[in-house]
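Figure S4 source data
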Amino acid sequence: MISLQMSRKTSQIQSRKQLWRLFSTISLPSSQQAEPPSFGIAFDIDGVVLRGSTPIGGATKALRRLYDDYGVLKIPFIFLTNGGGVRESKRAAELSEFLGVKISPLQVVQGHSPFKQMVNRFENELIVAVGKGEPATVMSEYGFKNVISIDEYALCFDNIDPLAPYKKWSTMEAAVSSTKKSIINSARVQAAFVVSDSVDWSRDVQVLCDILRTGGLPGSEEGPQPPLFFAHDDLKYQGAFSSERFGMGAFRIALESIFNSIHTKALTYASVGKPNPVAFKNAEVVLKQLASSLHHDLTTVDHANSRSHDFQKLYMIGDNPLVDIKGARQAGHPWFPILTRTGVFKGDPHSNHAEFPANLVVDTVEDAVNFILRNELIKS
């Protein structure tokens, strides 16, 4: 288990700015609540509110019930997803478009979001970011100053990927300057971060093994393994295809199996996404900030964020028992796990998961929201 510092002054400032942008567009005194909400909601994305880019399970209708007639948020909710590879601001814009409601970047907590809490440790160190989308851009936005994507890193070493000549596609088309190659060829990688799903397993397993077994410099003698972090460890997830797809956990299994076959010491690593309690603690912090902003005037957000607001209940709505439900159960009070049948879990109407049963099993996310609002005596 890695130790993560959950709050820093810079992140608080950024959060307050995000809150201001979220509520400043439409902010009416009548929308402020007499008391802070006693509950909050965390939604998984894939298999719960979306399949690919298409809303499922009455998600659009369900989410609109969490806003007032003016489009102002009245119930604090976030998306707690192991997905990622893009900045939270970009993902928020996509979700707003797909779901038809205004989503703030603060409401998007991705698998790699906790990585920002490790900036103090690796801020100026050379690190490699792995995955689809914009992994290096994501890490740079978090504050890492010397980060390179594995796409670009592989281009700095001639012939490091023996299969490259046979690939008719490329994950990095731009050339790398000879100066940058020279710098990277002599610098040791201090940590590797798997930010999102690997696009080129064969290359990424090869290059990561080179980095991890040589103390951070491919082609050199064996050395101490640099730290390795995964955004999450999902074996499978529900995408647009009818059956589940392999996730980052599958890539981790492949990497670990190969590394342990060629190295005398077993691979060491840590993952920070669901079901890790770190992910749920981080989610609770964000939900508290949202709840405070709903109760207090925006000019007093500084004071609101410094106050402790205890939820009576936090609802986790997910489709994967081994990730969403297990994580909420391990996090304990005040988490209340709800399992939908629209994604990884497809049990019959009267079934629950045997090993990690949810507190409630429903057909769709709309059913889950209906239950929550009834349970909390909220009229909408």
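Figure S5 source data
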Amino acid sequence: MRRSVRLAARAIEEVATQNHKFLQTSGEASRIKWKEEKGNNLRKGTSSIKSGTQQSKGKKRAREKSSTEQDHCEQEGGNLVNSVVTEEKVKPEIKRVKIEPGVHATIKSDNLNFQPFHTKLIGAHVSIGGGLHNAVSEALSIGAKAFAMFLRSQRQWASKPLQDKDAELFKEACSKANFSPRSILPHGIYLMNCGSPDEETLSKSRVTLVDELKRCERLGLSLYNFHPGSTCGKITVEESIARIAESINQAHQETKYVVTVLENMSCQGNTIGGKFEELRDIIDQVQDKSRVGVCLDTCHAFAAGYDIASEKGFEKMMDEFETTVGLQYLQGVHLNDSKGELGCHLDRHENIGKGKIGVEAFRRVMRDPRFNGIPMILETPYVSENIYQKEIKQLYAMMNLKKKKKDWIDM
């Protein structure tokens, strides 16, 4: 039995190495399969959508000028991933095997009856009040298969050092709860601006980035999500992008393996990352491509002008993401409806199905294999104590192809 486990783990590691050490096997396998089916027109509606959107891929939208600064009012999530031992979060028996960092594998019993929703890792941003380990308990209480959190206070530069005891309690809680390293995405503090024109702010941001990546390493995490930055209206977009990339490169030199995940923004004010071209330009200047990725926020994308509310607009956005950035860089999703209209450039999150994006858009997301195996995090408004639990159930219900609007429960 042990020999078969070792052989299986070795086979998985070889496949991962041949493709790209950065790619995670669970989600990438689904995306590769989807691309093959797409070429044969097996995916419903793809061929007609592709023909109608091909000419628009090369066009660039003009950036709206504004003197307003980035709005950080919405609470956002984080995710924890990548430890030496990886496993898929399911109740039945799972056999775990130790592998090298960066390579993820799960060896399952042949007789397990896995349901389709296990391909999606849905959760929410949870609190670290009372200790980091409490985030795990809260995630379990809402039925999450993924979760996000801050690693420290998100609204101040100063922070207490991470204690060894706290780190061990967190790792022990994750192990007992069977949370996979591919299911947790920590979020950076709001004050960081790695593209800032102000030297003091830039210096503090770079120190914070290194500090938080090191915290991730001590907690056994491999993903770290943060907002790229802002020009503050004082430097060009190109100059700010160069500073962001330089900040990432410097942080990578001082840390070991954590992937820095850039979040797409809403084009509000002078923020960077609302356009996929800006994310691509940052990635192009990052030296270690295996340590950079993107988290796709649905509210931000809609506010930036990507019409994900319609089927045609959703496919157009995903085609543009694939050709401009690359699906191999997709490391997470923030699931948020939008209070603002399409292209409003306002970062205003709404509960799923209650905003301008609508239920059907999230149903498409939930049934799209390109989002398999990556953390999908709710950052919707906290309107009731069990709101996240309800939304998680509703999102998983959307994957049932036999149900339509009956899968939506009014809140």
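The CA atoms of residues 238 and 395 lie 38 Å apart. The first strand starts at residue 94 and ends at 95.
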